[in-house]
Amino acid sequence: MRKGFSVTLVVTNLIKERSVLTIVSDTPLKILGLTDYEEKAYLTLARLGVCRASELAKESQIPRQKIYEILENLNNKGFVNTVQDKVTLYSPINPIFIEKLLMDKFENAKTFLASLHETAGAKHKDNIWIIRGKSRINSMLYQFTKALKAEKSLYIIANNLSLVSRASREIVKLKKKSVDVKIIANNEPQTRSRAEVFTKNNIDMKFIDSKHLKARAGVYDDKSAIVWDEESMIFSDSEFFVNFIRDHFKLLWSVGKKEL
After folding, report:
1. What is the side-by-side order of every strand in the sheet holding 88-92?
2. What is the pLDDT of residues 168-199, one digit of tens each?
3. Most buried one in 70, 73, 165, 192, CB count within 10 A?
4. d(CA 235, CA 105)
Protein backbone atom coordinates (compact mmCIF):
# COMPACT_ATOMS: atom_id res chain seq x y z
CA MET A 1 0.00 0.00 0.00
CA ARG A 2 1.36 3.44 -0.91
CA LYS A 3 1.89 5.85 1.95
CA GLY A 4 -0.61 8.69 2.13
CA PHE A 5 -3.26 6.85 0.10
CA SER A 6 -5.95 4.97 1.98
CA VAL A 7 -9.26 4.34 0.27
CA THR A 8 -10.48 2.63 3.42
CA LEU A 9 -9.91 5.87 5.31
CA VAL A 10 -11.78 7.86 2.67
CA VAL A 11 -14.77 5.50 2.71
CA THR A 12 -14.78 5.20 6.50
CA ASN A 13 -14.74 8.98 6.94
CA LEU A 14 -17.69 9.26 4.59
CA ILE A 15 -19.55 6.61 6.54
CA LYS A 16 -19.05 8.50 9.81
CA GLU A 17 -21.07 11.48 8.58
CA ARG A 18 -24.32 11.62 10.58
CA SER A 19 -26.12 14.13 8.39
CA VAL A 20 -27.60 13.40 4.98
CA LEU A 21 -24.57 12.82 2.75
CA THR A 22 -23.75 15.26 -0.02
CA ILE A 23 -22.07 13.27 -2.73
CA VAL A 24 -19.64 14.84 -5.21
CA SER A 25 -18.44 13.44 -8.52
CA ASP A 26 -15.32 11.28 -8.82
CA THR A 27 -15.52 9.90 -5.28
CA PRO A 28 -14.08 6.40 -4.80
CA LEU A 29 -17.47 4.74 -5.16
CA LYS A 30 -18.26 6.71 -8.31
CA ILE A 31 -15.00 5.44 -9.80
CA LEU A 32 -16.29 1.92 -9.19
CA GLY A 33 -19.45 2.66 -11.17
CA LEU A 34 -22.01 3.52 -8.50
CA THR A 35 -24.72 6.08 -9.20
CA ASP A 36 -25.60 8.92 -6.82
CA TYR A 37 -28.39 6.94 -5.18
CA GLU A 38 -26.34 3.73 -5.02
CA GLU A 39 -23.44 5.54 -3.37
CA LYS A 40 -25.73 7.25 -0.86
CA ALA A 41 -27.46 3.94 -0.09
CA TYR A 42 -24.17 2.08 0.47
CA LEU A 43 -22.68 4.76 2.72
CA THR A 44 -25.85 5.02 4.78
CA LEU A 45 -26.07 1.23 5.04
CA ALA A 46 -22.44 1.05 6.10
CA ARG A 47 -23.21 3.50 8.89
CA LEU A 48 -26.35 1.69 10.03
CA GLY A 49 -25.09 -1.87 9.65
CA VAL A 50 -27.78 -4.48 8.96
CA CYS A 51 -31.22 -2.98 8.35
CA ARG A 52 -34.45 -3.23 6.38
CA ALA A 53 -35.04 -1.49 3.07
CA SER A 54 -37.66 0.81 4.58
CA GLU A 55 -35.27 1.98 7.31
CA LEU A 56 -32.52 2.57 4.75
CA ALA A 57 -34.86 4.62 2.57
CA LYS A 58 -35.80 6.80 5.54
CA GLU A 59 -32.23 7.34 6.77
CA SER A 60 -30.78 8.02 3.33
CA GLN A 61 -33.78 10.08 2.14
CA ILE A 62 -33.93 7.98 -1.01
CA PRO A 63 -37.49 7.66 -2.40
CA ARG A 64 -38.99 4.44 -1.06
CA GLN A 65 -40.22 3.38 -4.48
CA LYS A 66 -36.58 3.38 -5.67
CA ILE A 67 -34.85 1.74 -2.73
CA TYR A 68 -35.52 -1.90 -3.73
CA GLU A 69 -34.20 -1.35 -7.25
CA ILE A 70 -31.12 0.37 -5.85
CA LEU A 71 -30.46 -2.41 -3.35
CA GLU A 72 -30.83 -5.01 -6.09
CA ASN A 73 -28.28 -3.13 -8.19
CA LEU A 74 -25.88 -2.92 -5.25
CA ASN A 75 -26.31 -6.63 -4.63
CA ASN A 76 -25.59 -7.42 -8.28
CA LYS A 77 -22.48 -5.22 -8.15
CA GLY A 78 -21.26 -6.96 -5.00
CA PHE A 79 -21.61 -4.06 -2.57
CA VAL A 80 -24.53 -5.41 -0.53
CA ASN A 81 -25.43 -8.78 0.92
CA THR A 82 -28.92 -9.93 1.84
CA VAL A 83 -29.83 -11.59 5.14
CA GLN A 84 -33.00 -13.63 5.11
CA ASP A 85 -35.10 -13.37 8.27
CA LYS A 86 -38.82 -12.75 8.73
CA VAL A 87 -38.14 -9.80 6.46
CA THR A 88 -35.19 -9.31 4.10
CA LEU A 89 -32.31 -7.45 5.70
CA TYR A 90 -29.38 -5.85 3.94
CA SER A 91 -25.75 -5.53 5.02
CA PRO A 92 -22.82 -3.71 3.35
CA ILE A 93 -19.55 -5.29 2.30
CA ASN A 94 -16.48 -4.31 4.31
CA PRO A 95 -14.76 -1.11 3.02
CA ILE A 96 -11.48 -3.04 2.76
CA PHE A 97 -12.88 -4.87 -0.27
CA ILE A 98 -13.69 -1.52 -1.88
CA GLU A 99 -10.08 -0.50 -1.30
CA LYS A 100 -8.90 -3.61 -3.13
CA LEU A 101 -11.24 -2.92 -6.06
CA LEU A 102 -9.96 0.64 -6.34
CA MET A 103 -6.31 -0.38 -6.15
CA ASP A 104 -6.93 -2.95 -8.89
CA LYS A 105 -8.43 -0.19 -11.04
CA PHE A 106 -5.47 2.04 -10.24
CA GLU A 107 -2.96 -0.62 -11.30
CA ASN A 108 -4.91 -1.35 -14.48
CA ALA A 109 -4.94 2.36 -15.32
CA LYS A 110 -1.16 2.56 -14.79
CA THR A 111 -0.61 -0.39 -17.11
CA PHE A 112 -2.88 1.13 -19.76
CA LEU A 113 -1.17 4.54 -19.60
CA ALA A 114 2.28 2.98 -19.82
CA SER A 115 1.19 1.11 -22.94
CA LEU A 116 -0.36 4.27 -24.37
CA HIS A 117 2.81 6.30 -23.83
CA GLU A 118 4.89 3.57 -25.44
CA THR A 119 2.59 3.46 -28.47
CA ALA A 120 2.52 7.25 -28.81
CA GLY A 121 6.28 7.46 -28.41
CA ALA A 122 6.79 5.13 -31.35
CA LYS A 123 5.10 7.60 -33.70
CA HIS A 124 6.29 10.99 -34.92
CA LYS A 125 5.71 13.88 -32.57
CA ASP A 126 4.96 16.66 -35.06
CA ASN A 127 2.15 18.95 -33.96
CA ILE A 128 -0.07 21.07 -36.19
CA TRP A 129 -2.66 23.55 -34.94
CA ILE A 130 -5.20 25.32 -37.16
CA ILE A 131 -7.09 28.37 -35.91
CA ARG A 132 -9.85 30.23 -37.72
CA GLY A 133 -11.52 33.58 -37.12
CA LYS A 134 -9.93 37.03 -37.24
CA SER A 135 -10.29 37.87 -33.54
CA ARG A 136 -8.92 34.50 -32.44
CA ILE A 137 -6.03 34.79 -34.89
CA ASN A 138 -5.06 38.26 -33.67
CA SER A 139 -5.22 37.12 -30.06
CA MET A 140 -3.16 33.98 -30.67
CA LEU A 141 -0.56 35.83 -32.75
CA TYR A 142 -0.08 38.45 -30.08
CA GLN A 143 0.26 35.81 -27.36
CA PHE A 144 2.62 33.81 -29.57
CA THR A 145 4.88 36.82 -30.19
CA LYS A 146 4.84 37.87 -26.52
CA ALA A 147 5.80 34.35 -25.45
CA LEU A 148 8.70 33.97 -27.89
CA LYS A 149 11.72 32.26 -26.37
CA ALA A 150 13.94 32.35 -29.46
CA GLU A 151 17.62 31.86 -28.65
CA LYS A 152 19.21 31.84 -32.12
CA SER A 153 16.93 33.27 -34.78
CA LEU A 154 13.57 34.86 -35.49
CA TYR A 155 12.42 35.48 -39.06
CA ILE A 156 9.15 37.27 -39.72
CA ILE A 157 7.14 38.01 -42.87
CA ALA A 158 4.90 40.75 -41.51
CA ASN A 159 3.21 42.63 -44.37
CA ASN A 160 2.29 46.07 -42.91
CA LEU A 161 3.68 45.41 -39.38
CA SER A 162 0.32 46.23 -37.75
CA LEU A 163 0.39 43.24 -35.44
CA VAL A 164 4.14 42.70 -35.12
CA SER A 165 4.64 46.30 -33.97
CA ARG A 166 2.44 45.54 -30.94
CA ALA A 167 5.12 43.08 -29.78
CA SER A 168 8.05 45.35 -30.69
CA ARG A 169 9.34 45.46 -27.10
CA GLU A 170 9.68 41.67 -26.94
CA ILE A 171 11.31 41.52 -30.39
CA VAL A 172 13.82 44.27 -29.53
CA LYS A 173 14.72 42.37 -26.33
CA LEU A 174 15.56 39.31 -28.43
CA LYS A 175 17.81 41.42 -30.66
CA LYS A 176 19.64 42.75 -27.61
CA LYS A 177 20.25 39.14 -26.58
CA SER A 178 22.06 38.61 -29.90
CA VAL A 179 19.22 36.68 -31.51
CA ASP A 180 19.35 36.97 -35.30
CA VAL A 181 16.14 38.90 -36.00
CA LYS A 182 15.05 39.63 -39.57
CA ILE A 183 11.73 41.10 -40.68
CA ILE A 184 10.20 41.40 -44.13
CA ALA A 185 7.41 43.95 -44.63
CA ASN A 186 5.59 45.50 -47.57
CA ASN A 187 6.75 48.73 -49.18
CA GLU A 188 3.57 50.71 -48.59
CA PRO A 189 3.89 54.24 -47.07
CA GLN A 190 1.94 53.25 -43.92
CA THR A 191 4.63 50.72 -43.04
CA ARG A 192 7.38 53.36 -42.69
CA SER A 193 6.43 54.70 -39.24
CA ARG A 194 5.87 51.21 -37.86
CA ALA A 195 9.29 50.09 -39.12
CA GLU A 196 11.19 52.82 -37.24
CA VAL A 197 11.00 51.08 -33.86
CA PHE A 198 12.80 48.11 -35.40
CA THR A 199 15.37 49.86 -37.62
CA LYS A 200 16.52 52.22 -34.85
CA ASN A 201 17.26 49.13 -32.75
CA ASN A 202 19.44 47.67 -35.51
CA ILE A 203 16.96 44.98 -36.50
CA ASP A 204 17.52 43.89 -40.08
CA MET A 205 14.56 44.67 -42.32
CA LYS A 206 13.77 44.33 -45.99
CA PHE A 207 10.79 45.56 -47.96
CA ILE A 208 8.93 44.01 -50.84
CA ASP A 209 5.86 44.69 -52.96
CA SER A 210 2.70 43.76 -51.04
CA LYS A 211 1.49 41.57 -53.92
CA HIS A 212 4.17 39.05 -52.90
CA LEU A 213 2.95 38.96 -49.29
CA LYS A 214 -0.40 37.22 -49.49
CA ALA A 215 0.25 35.41 -46.22
CA ARG A 216 2.29 36.31 -43.17
CA ALA A 217 4.69 33.94 -41.46
CA GLY A 218 7.31 33.49 -38.80
CA VAL A 219 10.05 31.00 -37.92
CA TYR A 220 12.09 30.88 -34.73
CA ASP A 221 15.18 28.80 -33.95
CA ASP A 222 14.29 26.56 -36.92
CA LYS A 223 12.03 24.72 -34.48
CA SER A 224 8.55 26.15 -35.00
CA ALA A 225 6.77 28.07 -37.72
CA ILE A 226 3.53 29.97 -38.06
CA VAL A 227 1.59 31.09 -41.14
CA TRP A 228 -1.54 33.22 -41.20
CA ASP A 229 -3.82 35.38 -43.30
CA GLU A 230 -7.09 37.17 -42.53
CA GLU A 231 -9.11 33.96 -42.18
CA SER A 232 -6.90 31.23 -40.75
CA MET A 233 -3.64 30.43 -39.00
CA ILE A 234 -1.42 27.34 -38.96
CA PHE A 235 1.20 26.70 -36.28
CA SER A 236 3.50 23.68 -36.33
CA ASP A 237 6.80 22.23 -35.14
CA SER A 238 6.92 19.81 -38.07
CA GLU A 239 10.42 19.77 -39.56
CA PHE A 240 9.03 19.78 -43.10
CA PHE A 241 6.74 22.74 -42.36
CA VAL A 242 9.46 24.73 -40.59
CA ASN A 243 11.94 24.17 -43.42
CA PHE A 244 9.36 25.16 -46.03
CA ILE A 245 8.56 28.47 -44.31
CA ARG A 246 12.23 29.22 -43.64
CA ASP A 247 13.13 28.63 -47.30
CA HIS A 248 10.23 30.82 -48.41
CA PHE A 249 11.49 33.58 -46.11
CA LYS A 250 15.01 33.30 -47.55
CA LEU A 251 13.64 33.58 -51.09
CA LEU A 252 11.73 36.77 -50.25
CA TRP A 253 14.72 38.13 -48.35
CA SER A 254 16.94 37.68 -51.39
CA VAL A 255 14.72 39.91 -53.53
CA GLY A 256 13.74 42.44 -50.85
CA LYS A 257 15.19 45.94 -50.55
CA LYS A 258 16.87 47.46 -47.52
CA GLU A 259 15.21 50.87 -47.88
CA LEU A 260 11.63 51.86 -48.57
Report:
1. 51-52, 88-92, 80-84
2. 888 888 888 888 999 998 888 888 788 888 88
3. 70
4. 38
